[in-house]
């Protein structure tokens, strides 16, 4: 989309931009780990979209006589303490994970990028105000901040999305602002300004397309963190509420039966691990392709959700 | 340097004021009456009035903020809605457990990260490098609560070599303290160590490509000495930053792991406060976490400027 916009605008960056995105796709596709990541994410999306049709049992189909059965042909991942099929629940849990990940990161991406663009472009007092506000939000460790937000809003899936969205907004604002500062004074931006382009046009057509690379990388890594955060919050009982299947919640429920029935806690954990790993690997591949000089976002942030 | 210290200090104070406003706001952003919520079914008018009075909730908002912030500065964080005990005391009780866990975890993290990071940088592209990279990628992605549960399953329940959960004070029994600390510290340490490993590696690679390294090599220094005297010393400076940031995170973000191992630290205190709707305790814990975070960040920045004379502000 961004590439097409720049081409239509006929901005000086346009010819390079189209081939650059294609080149990026080529590099990412040539990376075996990234392919693995895309494969797992493909599975995740299929599970999220077609879960109810693919699942052999309902997510809340209780069958007490079959409780705590180990993995077998009828129940691939075994059954939980209420006799519910763990495989079906893991499959349907993909929907919650993916939804929370995308909505939460959607919130931080929109708010953070917008704030970063404004702060970097206008500078001065507005920049100071926005960035000090981001500093304050950044001073709270991510998980604690999410928990405090949920203490106010109350537990639940939607509130977890909002909480995670707020937590990851400052990092998007910082990443965007830093890139805007380096692009703002470039010749093509000055040229566009001198022929009378307004602020919105400058920001949308000349600056945003040129600062997208680090934002895309940040998005992929943030998806990993957001999914991990949702799982942790649900594990603590603050996210998705029972009986809805959420991987974090299933893990905490399976914990009490770990000695008799390890499969209840092990499979949802494995699902979280694989999905988070995939987003991280993909984020790394995108970074190598789009922005080789940028240090890993994890490294620059220095912490994990 | 002096100017930089002053500026950085002022900035930190500014952020702290902002943080205090946010923490103060927690109790007022809760929909409904926080005291009524906290009391729930145990409601009685006398306790209700006393708690509201003690928390200063009957005064104008601005007065409330200054009273609250003023008391916080003197170390008075109010009283718990649940137990009626001073919040500061509750926090101090939990501090040794959290410090033990954070200290243990950082030791584990560095024990993993420094050797792995150095080896994978020196032998870039080797099998060892791939193994270290894969390990750190996995460590960053693994849910720590899942890892903790797996540890409990194997080492406590199956093999029965370590206690499954709980905390024993070092003053009570140093050995018990140590055995209880192992699993939670490794759980947290693996995650932090994975993050630091990547940082050590990239920082080493950068230093290996610098002019001073080429000069050291070209004057005939043995590779071992080049690495130890020139590369390592320069590469470890940024590692301090990341370790500091990890420490700040550890001191404040251990909520989930503390819950898994029933570790009575600050994270668990905050979590219990959320569940009990004990807002003064939550506010106190959040304020302290943020303060830790700011302080460590400040110290790391100052240390960085001090250690690397090339940095001029």
Indicate the CATH class of chain A: Mainly Alpha
Count, helices of chain B: 13
Radius of gyration of chain A: 22 Å
Report the count of strand segments of chain A. 0
Taken from the alpha-carbon principal axes, the silhouette of chain B is: globular
Largest sheet of chain A: none
Major sheet attributes of chain B: none
Biggest interface and residues each: A-B, 49 and 55 residues
For the record, the count of structural domains of chain A works out to 1
Derived from helix and strand composition plus strand pairing, the structural class of chain B reads mainly alpha
First and last CA, distance of chain A: 31 Å
* CATH H-level superfamily of chain A: MetI-like
pLDDT under 50 segments of chain B (min length 5)?
A: none
Average of the residue pLDDT scores of chain B? 85
CATH topology of chain A: MetI-like fold
**Residue share in helices of chain A?**
over 70%
What is the element string of chain A, with H for helices and E for strands?
HHHHHHHHHHHHH
Beta-strand content bin of chain A: under 5%
Question: What's the SSE blueprint?
Answer:
The complex is a heterodimer of chains A (305) and B (313).
Chain A: H1 2-9, H2 14-29, H3 32-54, H4 86-122, H5 124-138, H6 142-153, H7 157-167, H8 169-184, H9 187-194, H10 199-235, H11 247-255, H12 263-290, H13 297-301
Helix pairs in contact in A: 1-2, 2-12, 3-4, 3-12, 4-5, 4-7, 4-8, 4-10, 4-12, 5-8, 6-7, 7-10, 8-10, 9-10, 10-11, 10-12, 11-12
Chain B: H1 2-29, H2 34-39, H3 45-54, H4 61-73, H5 87-122, H6 127-141, H7 144-158, H8 174-208, H9 211-218, H10 223-252, H11 255-260, H12 266-276, H13 279-307
């Amino acid at each position: 989309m961004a590439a097409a916009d720049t081409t239509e605008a006929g901005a000086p960056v346009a010819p390079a931009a189209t081939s650059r995105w294609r080149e990026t796709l080529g590099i990412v596709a040539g990376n075996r780990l990234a392919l693995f990541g895309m494969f797992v994410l493909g599975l995740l999306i299929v599970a999220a979209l077609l879960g109810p049709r693919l699942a052999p049992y309902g997510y809340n189909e209780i069958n007490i006589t079959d409780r705590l059965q180990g993995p077998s042909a009828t129940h691939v991942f075994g059954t939980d303490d209420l006799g519910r099929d763990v495989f079906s629940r893991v499959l349907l849990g993909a929907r919650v994970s993916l939804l929370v990940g995308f909505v939460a990161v959607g919130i931080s991406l929109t708010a953070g990028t917008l704030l970063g663009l404004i702060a970097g472009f206008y500078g001065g007092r507005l920049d100071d105000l926005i960035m000090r506000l981001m500093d304050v939000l950044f001073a709270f460790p991510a998980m604690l901040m999410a928990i405090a937000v949920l203490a106010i809003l109350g537990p639940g899936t939607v509130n977890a999305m909002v909480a995670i969205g707020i937590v990851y907004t400052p990092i998007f604002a910082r990443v965007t602002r830093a890139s805007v500062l380096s692009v703002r004074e470039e010749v093509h931006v000055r040229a566009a300004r001198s022929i009378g382009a307004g602020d919105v046009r400058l920001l949308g057509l000349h600056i945003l397309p040129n600062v997208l690379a680090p934002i895309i990388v940040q998005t992929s890594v943030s998806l990993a963190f957001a999914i991990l955060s949702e799982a942790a919050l649900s594990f603590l009982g603050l996210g998705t509420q029972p009986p809805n299947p959420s991987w974090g919640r299933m893990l905490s429920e399976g914990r009490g039966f770990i000695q008799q029935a390890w499969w209840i806690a092990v499979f949802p954990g494995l699902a979280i691990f694989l999905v988070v790993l995939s987003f991280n690997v993909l984020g790394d591949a995108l970074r190598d392709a789009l922005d080789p000089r940028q240090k890993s976002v994890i490294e620059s942030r220095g912490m994990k959700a | 340097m002096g100017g930089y210290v002053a500026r950085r200090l002022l900035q930190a104070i500014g952020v702290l004021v902002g943080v205090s406003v946010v923490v103060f706001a927690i109790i007022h952003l809760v929909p409904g009456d926080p005291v009524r919520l906290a009391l729930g079914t145990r409601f009685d008018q006398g306790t209700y009035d006393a708690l509201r009075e003690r928390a200063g909730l009957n005064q104008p908002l601005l007065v409330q903020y200054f009273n609250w912030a003023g008391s916080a500065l003197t170390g008075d964080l109010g009283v718990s809605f649940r137990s009626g005990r001073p919040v500061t005391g509750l926090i101090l009780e939990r501090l040794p457990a959290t410090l033990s866990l954070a200290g243990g975890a950082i030791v584990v993290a560095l024990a993993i990260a420094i050797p792995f990071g150095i080896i994978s940088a020196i032998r870039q592209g080797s099998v060892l490098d791939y193994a270290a990279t894969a390990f750190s990628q996995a460590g960053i992605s693994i849910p720590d609560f899942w890892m903790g549960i797996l540890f409990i399953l194997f080492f406590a329940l199956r093999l029965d070599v370590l206690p499954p959960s709980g905390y024993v004070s070092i003053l009570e029994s140093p050995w018990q303290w140590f055995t209880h600390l192992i699993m939670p510290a490794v759980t947290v340490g693996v995650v932090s160590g994975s993050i630091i490993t990547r940082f050590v590696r990239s920082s080493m690679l950068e230093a290996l490509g610098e002019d001073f390294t080429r000069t050291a090599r070209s004057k005939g220094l043995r590779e071992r000495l080049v690495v130890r005297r020139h590369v390592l010393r320069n590469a470890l400076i940024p590692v301090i930053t990341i370790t500091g940031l990890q420490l700040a995170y550890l001191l404040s973000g251990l909520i989930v792991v503390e819950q898994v191992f029933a570790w009575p630290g600050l994270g668990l205190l905050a979590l219990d406060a959320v569940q009990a709707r004990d807002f003064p305790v939550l506010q106190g814990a959040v304020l302290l976490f943020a303060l830790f975070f700011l302080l460590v960040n400040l110290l790391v920045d100052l240390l960085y400027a001090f250690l690397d004379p090339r940095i001029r502000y």
